[in-house]
């Protein structure tokens, strides 16, 4: 799932910055009066930019993921090798069981990392992609558990709820960045104030976006437990636990071999900080499923 979150946040920051520059150059959304900031107008302006940026990011998420990861989308009606057919059938079977009416696109990208992700603007316009490394390292039962987890993200509508959350975060980012920029522009000469204000808005907006991503990461960790439960319902509790244990074993092995934090499903083997993690600890996820 971390791939999905990464693409969404990166796209969001780029889109938000682009929209901001366009609005500033065109003079739209003026919220500064002779008496200072009109906070009501600024809040409305911030919400418009914030939610527009979030929804544009959502619409671009599937396209961005395919381009950035060079995902080979498998045509379910075209020629496939046995492994590709197996993955497509797994995704379609899980999707039907989850009540998804239009089958997700299925893709494989060539990377040695053990990873998989699901993305897309809606349940009917989604993508499930797995890495070649995952297919090489995991047995069929573990692969099925991983795919069930990703399909559960789609069925749960996690990208849409993530977008609504990101819209709220964006609103506060835009709002606070402009207040901070206005204050900063008061400390320079009057002729320099517009330039400082312009630059400060971009700088503060990017900085606050990074801080705001901590809220998104926290929500992501919360939704991972739900996707695990959904994966257990689709593939079976034993396969879901087996998939997580396989990821855990792989992460530990790679960590021991190379003193790095290579991540299975981007779950760090050596967690630097829980605040910056998109996933809960694997041991916690396994324990919750076992107690289910």
From TrEMBL:
Subcellular location: Cell membrane
Transmembrane stretches, start-end: 7-33, 39-60, 164-183, 195-219
Active site: 150
UniProt signal peptide: none
Top EC class for this record: hydrolase
Binding note for cofactor: Binds 1 zinc ion per subunit.
GO process annotations (BP): proteolysis
Topological type in the membrane: Multi-pass membrane protein
Annotated positions binding Zn(2+): 149, 153, 224
Cofactor entry: Zn(2+)
Keywords: Cell membrane, Hydrolase, Membrane, Metal-binding, Metalloprotease, Protease, Transmembrane, Transmembrane helix, Zinc
Domain (Peptidase M48): residue spans on this chain: 82-291
EC id: 3.4.24.-
InterPro entries according to UniProt: HtpX_protease, Pept_M48_protease_HtpX, Peptidase_M48
GO MF annotations, alphabetized: peptidase activity
Domain of life where this protein originates: Bacteria
Predominant cellular place of this UniProt entry's protein: membrane
Xref: NCBIfam families: PRK05457.1
Family from the record: Belongs to the peptidase M48B family.
HAMAP family: Pept_M48_protease_HtpX
Family annotation (PANTHER family): PROTEASE HTPX
The name this protein goes by in its record: Protease HtpX homolog
